[in-house]
Amino acid sequence: MYNYVKQISAFLPNKQGTLTGFTQLLADNSLDLMALSLADTTNFGIARAIFKEYDKALAVLQQAGYTASITPVLAVGVPDCPGGLNKVLQILNRENLSIEYIYNFVHTVDDQAVLICRVDDGDKAVDELQKAGVKLFDRSELQ
Amino acid sequence: MYYNEHMETASRDELERIQLERLQATVRRMYDNVGFYRRRMEEQGVVPEDIKTLSDITKLPFMSKIDLRDNYPFGTFAVQKTEIVRLHASSGTTGKPIVAGYTRHDLEMWSDCVARGLSAVGVTADDIVQVAYGYGLFTGGMGVHYGIERLGATVLPISAGNTKKQIMMMQDLGTTVLACTPSYALVLGEAIRDMGIDPETIKLRVGVFGAEPWTEGIRKEIEALLHIKAYDIYGLTESVGPGVAMECKEACDGLHIWEDCFIPEIVDPDTGEPLPDGQIGELVITTINKEGMPTVRFRTHDLTYIHKEPCVCGRTHRRLHRLMGRTDDMLIIRGVNVFPSQVESAIVGIEGIAPRYLLVVDRVHNLDTLEVQVELLPTLVYDEVRKMEALRAKVQKSIEQVLGLSVSVRLMPPNSIERAEGKSKHIKDNRKLD
Ligand SMILES: [Zn+2]
Fold first, then answer.
1. How many angstroms does the Cα of residue B283 sit away from the middle of ligand 1?
2. Hey, is the C-beta of B380 within 8 angstroms of any chain A C-beta?
């Protein structure tokens, strides 16, 4: 049974200084940011991030007036060699699993790059990736 | 249940006959006894004999709060002071208050209106009603009080404030009905929850709330907190006080205005032109069963419309829609009248969106633009930009459908929009008009 990694998603209005306000808040609360991705439109953005202490991060953000929530995501181990990422994506593609977004961990873990991945059918993706021998990092290994 | 079945279910013909008779008598008394209104009528070239049908009411001059203030304290009374048995006053934010005088007949009429309203929401002689409206110059406390006694229910005149004592009395006496402002009902409900009191130890079943504007959202909140059915009561000191109009439990949709005592009109707030039933505009009330201080075509500045359909409860008196704001809040954008409360009704219930908004009006290349900023709830419902964008578009479509006007919508973080306690805080108008 795979223990999903918990991602924090937060809404960022598109105004000058919102991102620095966000990172400042994390720093002030000594929250260890392990991965971060940003997506935006002209009107607003969404920050997605993995923290060691995801529950504390959620509380800090909501108390500071952010709209935020927890989303379960996969943490996929990608061998640190050419073609590593391709191998993972090919498996998902073969099984018609659509990827909503991916982004990378700042550091490698056990010499592997860690890919944060949100797929429409997470349970199926877990099965297929594990069958193909791809390493999935459990929440207990990261958080 | 009806309190005065004959009057509450009278045929429209009979009601209108009573209305015309009473309107004519009221206008005659105003003309004969209230100098300022007589001069107004003369300026407009109208005499009491001109009122031959109900629709002739539009020939009469309006009255406003300013008129009452200018004739402070007794200048608009239509009877000798010996006939006045009670005075109330509405607090003015600046300067002098407005003084209202009541004859014995007026107090009877008022109690009767309140008793009808209470009865319409199922209050009976078996109930204990806790009146947590303020007592004193304000009409709320005493107005509801005498209506309760008239109905034969038991009144607990505790007045406003002292929340802990309110809750203790509620538990000890087994209060079944609460009458107060909706905001105080929320305070009581939250206090009961925060004190960890088992709602089963409280027997409340009905709430009668008024004296300030509130929304369907607040109604749901109060009902959930207090485990009651909450009803809207409407009134204003210039007309009499609370009880001018009241919801019924059968429809719980619109407030029956007692038309044998009050004639409601809806007019365009800008031009004063009468609007047909179903159209939103300013409520204008003429008191036709009041001796002490009748008010003719009084501009309430409250926005509402009159329901077109007869009510399922059998009452023939027409219904005012729950108040939709104040005329001071009305905006005219590209020629369309826009009321902030319409936006609220458009966004309420959309997942992830708080009922908090700001209308930002601007003029770009001689064209009015309207941006609606809406607040998100603290919990993000989607972690994908595409879905958030779809949510934004959904909010936009919903608002556009209600307003009949194209708008842009901006999603805002929680608590970023200033709380609207006074009026006009829902609006930021950047247009420079000359
Ligand atoms: Zn009804």
1. 19
2. yes
